[in-house]
Every structure is written in structure tokens, then in C-alpha cells.
Design goal:
Layout lengths: L9 H23 L5 H17 L14 H18 L7 H8 L12 E6 L2 E2 L14 E4 H4 L5 H6 L10 H8 L4 E6 L9 E8 L5 E3 L2 E6 L4 E11 L2 E11 L4 E8 L6 E10 L4 E8 L4 E10 L5 E10 L4 E10 L5 E10 L4 E10 L7 E10 L5 E10 L5 E9 L3 H9 L4 H17 L5 H15 L8
Length: about 475
């Protein structure tokens, strides 16, 4: 009787996943590298070099202590080569279309919205609709922009440099193929939101997608951008978003992560703000088997400001991690962070938030808050709020609290005729509404409210 081969160790799985990633990227190079302009090919090869040097995160890496990298690493050798060979799906499966339809008020059928749909990381022109934009505004797929690349795209793509130090940003660069490019010139104010819908359609088999979104706003420009992720089947979505705001620009940016219960999601976003620029960010994470959302905001200009809201919902065996870094490098800056988590079953969540005030960041006003609601005895949240301050003329606070539904409030609602489940839903929705009600875009706020209600009833992505 032959002995069964032992399962690979975590270190062996991570090494195999890194090797599979490099092999998949090189196979992609052989297939379509010549379709990319030189600067994009250079970024892809920089990603390969960095990935070979960094490798995927190890268990001992402090920044990754809350993320189950081992579970992802064991699946990557099957996911990455499949996506490199197959690329985007020629048609969208019924399951993926159903997932896409959940974005109802944000879909391409709604008037007043401009929508790009990326299927498995590549543009689907039949599902997209972009027309009637003001002169000078660009909202297009990277694959189309690469055909005649604007100068600004060459300047901005990869400028943040996260691929040099972040393993999954390096992986994204190594597989660079498509995504979305947003350019709003100086002084232009967009009344309609720009929506990028990412669909991971794994109906034909497991896959990986590596979309990249580049957003650049000129001086005094204003825009709203929504990134939404959904899908069907087992997929690994490794997204990178780069945001550049010049002086006094204003961006409202929302990310909705609503992928299938089998999905792995790693999202890495970095924003660079000039003098007086303002970023309003919100992240809703409700889907996926394992989801990690990272947001870094660097305030390079005097008087720049950032408001970061987050809401993560997890049940069953889901894991969702949220990591933020706000870097105050110049004086008179301000930042507000409000992140909330709601967990049930044996779900696990994490909030790792850090505020850094540099020596030149005098008169900074920065506040960070994380509150979590546990709906079961077996759910868990790890919270790690941090302040790192190198200037005394600042006003900075942080805090975190995790608890259960208030027994007195439950008793009060029960005494007014609510059933126990109704009372729990009312209080949970009220907890989430502090984040949802702050959304200024009507269709987005309606969608978030519907999504939270669906989650409470068990009818939501990631529900088990």
C-alpha cells in the first residue's frame, strides 16, 4: 500500500504560490506583452522582479497576522495559471449576471450613471455604457487607453510605487492587463458618478483577476467614483487602485465588496493628496471567503483632508480585514476615520488603523474610531488602532470598542411588541446606519441600505 504524500507546509505552499504567480505572469507576457505600451510592460516586469524578491507574505509578517494567507496560498497555484491561460470570459454566465443585477441602482441601465463593466479583469463593452462626458474627461478601460495612451496615464500608472514593497500590489503589476482610467481636468465638476463594476465569473472554473483603477483629478476638479465587486464561483480578485488629487480637488470614492462565498479578495488602494485636496472614502465589505481591504492616504499638501468610513459584515466562517494608514506630512491637515464591523457565527474581523503625523505636520486634526458589534458568542474582532506622532502641535484621538447588543434596548423593543429577531434587526440596522446614512449619492445609499437589510435576513453575498 502506497503512503499518502504529506500535505505541504505553509512555507512550502507560499513558495509554490509565488512560483506559480511568476510562471503565470511570464506566460501572460508571451501571449500579449506586445499589446501593451512600453511603460505598461515595464511596470509588469517591475512587478515580476518585486514579487520574486518579496514573495507572498509569511506567517511571521506583522502586517499580515490577521489575514489567512495560508488558505489563499494553497489555492493560488490552481487559480493563477487558469486565469493567465483563459483571460476574460467571452460570455457572462447566468450566475454572474445574477450577481451583477444585485447592483440594480448602480447598473448600466440607470440613467445618469457612466458604467464600465470588467469581467474577470477585462472590459466587457456590451455591458458598459459611457457617453456624454464633459470635454477633457476620460473614463475608459485601460486596455483601450493603452492603444493611444494619454501622457497623464504614463505619468500616473504605478507612480504610487506600492508594487515595490507590497506583495499583492507586485502581483497585480505582474499581471497588468486591464482596468479603468479616470481623468478629470482642472476645474471640471462631474455631476454624474463614474461606476466601475468588477465581475469575477468563475462558472467555467476557478480563476484570478488583477484589475487596476487609476483616478487623477486636476486642480479644483470634483468627481464621484464607485468601485463595485461581485461574482460567482471560486475566484481570487487582487485589485489595486491609485488616486491622485491635485490642489483643492475633491473626490468621493466608494468601494463595495460583495463577491461570492468562495472568493478571495485583496484590495490595495493608495491616495495622494495635494494642497487643500479632500478625499471622502467609504468601504463596504460583505462578501467573500477571505477579504482584505487596505487604504493608504498620504496628505502631501497643506490643508489636505480625508474622511474614511468603513462597514464590514461577516457571518459563518468569513474573514474580513481592514487596514488603513493616514500619513499627515504637511501642516493644517485633517482626517476622520469611522469603521464599524458586524459579525455573527464564527466569523472573524480585524481593523488595523494607523495615523502618522510627520514633523512638518503641525496643527493636524486627526481622529480615528472603530466600533464592532458581535451577534454571536463565537465571532471575533481584532482591533489595533495606532497613533504615531512627531509634532506636538496636533489634536489626535483614537479609540476602539467591541460589544454586543444592548440588553436594555432589546428589552425595551420587546416590551413594545417586537419579536426578539425583529428587535435585534432594528438595533443592528441602527448600528450600521451611522455609516450608511452619511453616503451622499442617493442610488448608492439605497443600495447599501438594501444590502444591509439583505445581510440581516441572511440573503446576501457571503451568507452561509
Amino acid at each position: 500500500m502506497s503512503a499518502t504524500a504529506p500535505a505541504p507546509t505553509v512555507s512550502e505552499a507560499i513558495a509554490a504560490a509565488t512560483a506559480a504567480a511568476l510562471a503565470g505572469s511570464r506566460a501572460l507576457d508571451e501571449r500579449d506583452a506586445e499589446a501593451l505600451p512600453l511603460f505598461a510592460r515595464n511596470l509588469r516586469r517591475d512587478g515580476q522582479e518585486a514579487l520574486g524578491r518579496l514573495g507572498l507574505p509569511r506567517l511571521a509578517d506583522e502586517e499580515w497576522r490577521y489575514t489567512s494567507v495560508a488558505a489563499l496560498a494553497r489555492r493560488l497555484p490552481d487559480l493563477l495559471p487558469a486565469s493567465a491561460a483563459r483571460g476574460g470570459s467571452p460570455t457572462v454566465s447566468a450566475a454572474a449576471r445574477e450577481a451583477l443585477s444585485c447592483f440594480g441602482p448602480l447598473s448600466a441601465e440607470r440613467k445618469g450613471l457612466h458604467v464600465l463593466v470588467l469581467v474577470n479583469g477585462r472590459l466587457d463593452p456590451d455591458l458598459s455604457r459611457v457617453d456624454g462626458l464633459p470635454a477633457g474627461v476620460r473614463f475608459e478601460a485601460l486596455s483601450r487607453a493603452f492603444a493611444a495612451p494619454p501622457a497623464l496615464l504614463e505619468q500616473r500608472l504605478g507612480l504610487a510605487g506600492s508594487h515595490r514593497s507590497h506583495p499583492f500590489a507586485a502581483l497585480n503589476a505582474a499581471f497588468l492587463s486591464d482596468g479603468a482610467f479616470v481623468e478629470v481636468p482642472d476645474g471640471v465638476v462631474l455631476a454624474e458618478p463614474l461606476v466601475v463594476l468588477h465581475v469575477a465569473d468563475a462558472a467555467a472554473g476557478p480563476l484570478a483577476a488583477h484589475p487596476r483603477v487609476v483616478v487623477s483629478l486636476g486642480e479644483n476638479a470634483q468627481a464621484s467614483v464607485v468601485e463595485a465587486y461581485c461574482g460567482a464561483g471560486e475566484a481570487f480578485v487582487n485589485a489595486v487602485t491609485e488616486i491622485y488629487l491635485l490642489a483643492h480637488a475633491r473626490l468621493d470614492h466608494s468601494k463595495l465588496q460583495e463577491e461570492s462565498p468562495e472568493a478571495f479578495h485583496v484590495g490595495t488602494a493608495e491616495a495622494h493628496l495635494g494642497p487643500g485636496a479632500q478625499l471622502y472614502s467609504r468601504v463596504l465589505s460583505v462578501g467573500g471567503r477571505i477579504a482584505r481591504n487596505e487604504l493608504t492616504v498620504r496628505l502631501h499638501g497643506d490643508g489636505a483632508g480625508a474622511t474614511l468610513d468603513g462597514l464590514f459584515l461577516a457571518r459563518g466562517t468569513q474573514e474580513v480585514d481592514n487596514h488603513t494608514l493616514v500619513d499627515h506630512a504637511r501642516p493644517h491637515g485633517g482626517s476622520q476615520q469611522r469603521y464599524k464591523g458586524i459579525l455573527s457565527g464564527t466569523a472573524r474581523g480585524a481593523f488595523d488603523g494607523k495615523v502618522v503625523v510627520r514633523p512638518a505636520g503641525a496643527f493636524t486634526d486627526a481622529h480615528q474610531s472603530n466600533r464592532n458589534l458581535l451577534l454571536s458568542d463565537t465571532a471575533r474582532v481584532d482591533a489595533k488602532p495606532q497613533l504615531e506622532i512627531y509634532n506636538n502641535d496636533v489634536k489626535c484621538t483614537h479609540g476602539s470598542a467591541t460589544g454586543r447588543l444592548d440588553a436594555d434596548a432589546l428589552f425595551y423593543l420587546r416590551s413594545r411588541g417586537f419579536s426578539e429577531s425583529e428587535a435585534r434587526s432594528v438595533l443592528t440596522l441602527a448600528f450600521a446606519s451611522e455609516i450608511v446614512d452619511r453616503v451622499p449619492l442617493d442610488p448608492l445609499r439605497a443600495h447599501l441600505t438594501e444590502r444591509v437589510l439583505g445581510w440581516l435576513s441572511g440573503d446576501a453575498p457571503g451568507a452561509r
